Amino acid sequence: MPIDFCSLASGSSGNCQFISSGGTKLLVDAGLSGKYIKMALEKFDVSLLDIDGVLVTHEHSDHIQGVGVLQRKYGLKIYTNEKTFKAMQPKIGDVDLNKIILFDNYKPFEIKDLWIEPYSISHDASDPVAYCIRSNDAQMGIATDLGQMDMILLQALKQMDLVMLESNHSVEMLTAGKYPYYLKRRILSEVGHLSNDTCGTMVTELVRAGFVKSVLLGHLSKENNLPDLAFETVKSIAEEAGIRVGQDVAIDMTYRDRISSLYRIRRTL
Question: Which residues contact 166 (CB under 8 A, 6 or more apart)?
Answer without folding.
Answer: 143, 144, 145, 146, 193, 194, 199, 217, 218, 219
